[in-house]
Write a structure and sequence with these properties.
Elements (H helix, E strand, L loop, with lengths): L8 H10 L5 H5 L7 H10 L4 H47 L7 H14 L20 E4 L7 E10 L10 E12 L3 E9 L20 H16 L11 E8 L6 H7 L15 E13 L5 E8 L7 H8 L23 E3 L2 E14 L2 E11 L4 E3 L7 E13 L1 H5 L8 E2 L15 E2 L5 E2 L35 E2 L23 E6 L7 E2 L5 E3 L3 H6 L9 H12 L6 H4 L8 E9 L16 H4 L9 H21 L3 E7 L7 H6 L6 E4 L2 H16 L1 E3 L2
Parallel strand pairs: 4-5, 4-20, 20-21, 21-22
Antiparallel strand pairs: 1-2, 2-3, 3-23, 5-17, 6-11, 6-12, 7-10, 8-9, 9-10, 13-14, 15-16, 17-18, 18-19
Length: 685
Amino acid sequence: MPVGPPLTLFRVLGMFELGYFRGPERMLGRKHGYSAAALLKALRSNTAGNVYAMAAAALFPIAAIIGGGVDIGRAYMAQARLQQACDAGALAGRRAMTGATMSSADAAEARKFFDFNFPEGSFDTDAFAKVNGVDNPRFVDGPSGDKSVKGYAQTTLNTSIMKIFGYQKMKLKVDCTSRLDIGNVDVMMVLDVTGSMNWKPDGSWTSTESEKRITGLKDAVEDFYNILGTGDNSSNGSQIRYGFMPYNAMINVGETLYDENPSWLVGGVGTTSDDEWNYQTRRAHWIVPGTNKVTTYEQINVAGASGNDRNACEDDFGQNRTTPPIWNPGDSGYGNGTPLTQNGYYYEFSYYSYRRYSSNYKLCTRKVERYDSPPVKTTTWQPGAVFDFWEYDEFDHDVSAYVKSIKSGNPSALRPTLYNNPADDTDGPNDRWNGCIEERDTYSNITSTTNAIPANAYDLDIDLIPNSKATRWRPYWDGVEYTRNGSSASDSTCPAKGRRLAEYASYDSDPGLNSAGNTIYSGNLKTYINSLSPSGNTNHTIGMIWGARFLSPSGLFATENTTTKNGFNIARHLIFMTDGDLNVFPYRYNVYGYNDLDGRLAPTGTNQSGYEAIQAQRFQLMCSAVKAQGITVWVIQFTNSSTIQQNLLNCASSADHAAAATSNAALQAAFGDIAKTIGGLRLSK
């Protein structure tokens, strides 16, 4: 029997339907039946047309294999997309968290990202429905304390071919976890606390605390801590430390320096020459009266004196000068002027009184004081001396007692400039040092084109350990600072104390600990941040200098700053937040003295714009020095402008490390984004 044309699957099915395979006798041309054995034998011996039977027999297994492959492939793709959606939701939920646990808003954010990545019904899946009464999909907190987010989702996929074989649906189920993966991290926050932080973010004034920039800053710092948190608290686990450097035109680090090493300060060395510092100030002059004083009064009639007769009385006769044409000192046996020494005596003459009795009788009286030995003028008080006058200039003051007064257990220090008319050299107010400093020596010829820190600009050297008077810091003492006209110099407000790196087990109840677990700040972090109070003007440079010094792994606090529990490396980050431009004055006493008299940063006579241009360049030099240490610099500009100032943009480690915040909410978001980036948000499952 010849072989017929090729058969397709569908043709074989048709042949079954038409009865081609009703019995082997039809296929073999026989009219009588055979047993099964005979049939098989006949089929084996006669292969004509066997392909029809074989194809028919293989039809259903082939269909099952193909259908299974198609539906399993669909299920695989749906499962992969469902997992991606779960991962995206978990990451979004963790990223949105600002506290230790998820809020309803955080969960909603997670679900939003899930739905975007896996819209309901994708891949012909059934609608999501609760499972055992629990939401599906759902995003919840992970184990207590680890600040992770866990996600769960399940659905069913409707099969396309396998339903022929009775398999209608395939179950899909996924779970996921995201967390902040944190190693050893040191974060130093350099925070602008100038007077404009009392304003609204748009630059207008407000008396409502919740609207102020400073309130937004306090909330942002708390959010940052809640996101980044603390280390795992185990003896060899990761550590997260926080440091803070509030700044305006001043910096408050005196007590920290004193506690670490008093000899880093002028006034803490222990020798007179090293414990005196020169201020633009005043010095008292005293008079020790002469001995055996005899006071008499002499009179003349000044009627007819040349010019004004009263002036003739006060300025001429009263001062023992010739009073033409009516009198001269020789008439009374004296030399001319006052004071004078004559015949072994010391004389002082002074006007006493003037009386007009008539046009021809105008009586002038003067006082004559005669001493056996003359009075002594001195700048050092001694018993019996009386105050004479103040001399205004640059003078040294011993600051040792003032420096020691930083500790509450030590007495306050007598102000060396005393009261205005002191009775003696102890007649003055007592002052206690608040911790603000004057910077150490610097180089006064830095300009806008200076591109490297000069070797003798000690103030810009982050890691230099003080070893001389030029490299030590000096106490800021506003009570002794005067201008040449005798007025107290305009001073600067001292900000809150800077805080070194410390671990805080919680934001609002635990103290700050060093790497050995010892308390270095007894107050909790929330109380400290809430104590920040806006005042003063803006000097970015001094904030950056001291933020770097407190963070540096190779400077003043190198031993502590490089110590970890687990021996691994430390990622160091400096966050610089400011709400405005540089705003420093050459005619105000600040961390660099009184520039118009001291000339430490610029020649005396430099105006404000020139002074600020120099400070701006010094800021850039410091930013470069910080980044050269491997520290990541983040910058947040908190103003009403969304355009970041170029000097701030240049300071950041990159453009991606700079942000502009125009509202309190935006400031919180900027801090939160940095915390999440530092923490390394990732999937842990």
